[in-house]
Design a protein that fits this description.
The structure holds 2 protein chains of 2 kinds. Chain A is mainly β. Chain A contains no helices and 11 strands. Chain B is mainly β. The chains are: A mainly beta, B mainly beta. At the A-B interface, strand 5 of A face strand 5 and strand 10 of B.
């Protein structure tokens, strides 16, 4: 089993839809959970960060971590065409430990 | 503008040739990384450097070498390129002392094709 599994996609939704992106993981030592967004032909950029379990909201984006189930989610409300990108989950055990990425899911928001 | 620059943007290379991908950051970050990104495989760490003068192997180091002579530069060398090294290469940097979660900042990438 891979350390981090991410739904492969791709995912296509109409503008205004609520999007749910998910990752599961096997390493119970992971404490730092991140979502990176990557536009076509660009480098990834950090979108959301969460430490340990719980929710974090930033505008239309909500990151959720359930450590008991080893499951993290990113919710996008009122999705916009500008949200069309590849979303990668990433996690690490300690601040200086290796960052492990999911394979990424490509989201397309149709106008 | 602060950030990471990579060169070249793209390159087509004959198998067996030597190639160095350049990476420079101006954020004075202590740690730097090289990843390759392949369809269906995601981002995989090739080599990393926690501070100038030190380097370490990542998940897929074979066929690649790095050096870290100073804080700003972290070149990646393919000594004898093979077609399986066709990929998009990303350089990243982070400053563990600034943020506890150690955010990594990525460059724009180098698209390498080995024929």
């Amino acid at each position: 089993q891979k350390e981090v599994e991410q739904d492969p996609g791709p995912l296509s939704v109409p503008e205004g839809a609520i999007v749910s992106l998910n990752c599961t993981y096997s390493n119970s030592a992971f404490q730092y959970f991140m979502w990176y967004r990557q536009y076509s032909r660009k480098g990834p950029e950090l979108l959301m960060y969460t430490y340990s379990s719980g929710n974090k909201e930033d505008g239309r984006f909500t990151a959720q971590v359930d450590k008991s189930s080893k499951y993290i989610s990113l919710f996008i409300r009122d999705s916009q065409p500008s949200d069309s990108a590849t979303y990668l989950c990433a996690m690490r055990a300690g601040a200086n430990s290796k960052l492990t990425f999911g394979k990424g899911i490509t989201l397309s928001v149709r106008p | 503008i602060a950030g990471i620059t990579q060169a070249p943007t793209s390159q087509i290379l004959a198998a067996g040739r030597r190639m160095t991908l350049r990476c420079t950051q101006d954020m004075r970050h202590n740690a730097m990384y090289w990843y390759r990104q392949d369809l269906g495989l995601g981002l995989r760490l090739i080599h990393y450097s926690n501070t100038a003068g030190t380097t370490g192997k990542g998940e897929v180091p074979d066929g690649y070498s790095v050096s870290r002579a100073n804080t700003d530069d972290f070149p990646l060398t393919l000594a004898s390129a093979v077609p399986s090294q066709t990929s998009v290469y990303f350089c990243a940097s982070s400053d563990a002392y600034k943020r506890s979660y150690n955010e990594q900042f990525f460059g724009p990438g180098t698209r390498l094709t080995v024929l």
